[in-house]
Amino acid sequence: MLQLLLPPQYGDYEFAWLKKFGPVYSVKGCFGNRLMISDPLGMQYILNSPHFGRGPALQNVMELMLDQKAIVAAQGDTHKRLHAALNIGFTSAAVRNYQPIFERVVEKITEQLGKCSGSLTDLYPILSAASLSAISEAVLGCSARDLDEDFVANNERIIFLSSRQSSTQIIADAIASRLPKIVRRAAMHLPIAAFKVLRTVKSLAHQIGRRAVAEKLLAAQQGANMKTDVFGMLLDLEQSDLKKNVLTEEELVAQTGFLMIAGQESVTNTLVFGCLELARHPEFQHQRRAEIHASLRGPSTTFAYESMPLLNAFIKETLRLYPAPAIHDYTTVQDTVIPLADGIKNSRGEVMNHIPVQKGQVMHVAIASYQRLQSRWGEDAHQFRPSRWLDGTIKQGQAVGPYANLLAFLGGPRVCLGWRFAYVIHDIHHNDNSPLAFRKTIFFRTHYSNTLILVTPSGEKAAPLYITRI
Ligand code: HEM
Question: Which residues bind heme per the record (predicted)?
Fold first, then answer.
């Protein structure tokens, strides 16, 4: 289990085991064997079936870090209701309204990166601040400059703490997740530095959310356009489900912390990995720029990236190789049988097209492994090759995930609501007002610590790349 989560480079063992044992095998965990599964049909079943709940360690993290009313901490019918209600702010029509915000943020990032031209620059702080800006404006309708300084600092601290996972911590998490909920909640009040940061962020996020809701309601009374951000959409008295009492103001406020932290962290990491692959593939970087130039010469459309096959392929390929939820844990809540697309051989050599699992079985939905299955993505599935999305290499099969059969945004009832949002933020890669090129310098490693991150050989979360203006 520790080999799986803390190898020198993420996937060192996992991808070797995938090759050796196939898409279903078991690994030894702290409290018994765990099932690793990357079979597409099996994953689709687990993600959509009520027979599975979130794994104990992951649920523990959600409960510790977030407001109890936050969508990711909610379960069953409450979760369904919150998901449906919040979805109003994340439809493709809604996200199109937020486009000017993303364009402004992208302008600022390119300007800032341009200033670092000719030097070795860690992309993390720049892209992290930019993601926070985009999310703060597009979700709350509030500039990141207006966010409480303490919130921004503590938010960064949480992201930093969650990027440092040690073997002791993994074991402690596994033990903590076995404690009764009441004990875990009580532990949050212990005078431990990390818990203090969590308590502060929760409380500040609440204040920020409450202020945003109050300002939006006032703006609505004054007849302001409410469609410019997620909170506005949700509080729009013309169409909102709030008036049907589907989502209370208090519940909307409770989503603030998760939307800010999770959105910022996932978007930043995906952008960083994208820039790293550009640095590693100068030829592709050049072709992509040529596509941008061609599109800028054509008729101007707001969503220009829709007509840019290389840019689309690039974003998909980045999400394929670097899914934020590389391994997602589930527990079986009642005995069930998981169907498999590709049968597996049992110890007697018989081919099984399904596997029975008992209540209480912990399993790892191996998203990073699935996204490297040669049977689906091609013989060179471990390579970064965006052209696979354009030349027919990829085989269709069970439809999993909301986008391009990828599971970077998960799938099923808990699918990411902000996936369109995340896609648009990648506009950074087609902004060409200040053309930049990235060049790799040192050896990097990918590391899994609640999410996939880039670390230097000494284990520090950082993405130093050379930036040059062209
Ligand atoms: C590349 C960027 C992103 C990735 C890879 C990503 C990935 C994910 C994943 C894996 C989950 C499932 C978490 C779980 O239940 O365990 C999730 C949930 C969610 N994400 Fe994202 N996310 C991204 C960006 C965003 C952004 C920008 C927002 C909004 C500002 C957002 C909003 C949400 C919400 C509201 C949920 C909860 C859905 C539910 O439980 O019903 N995400 N995301």
Answer: 416
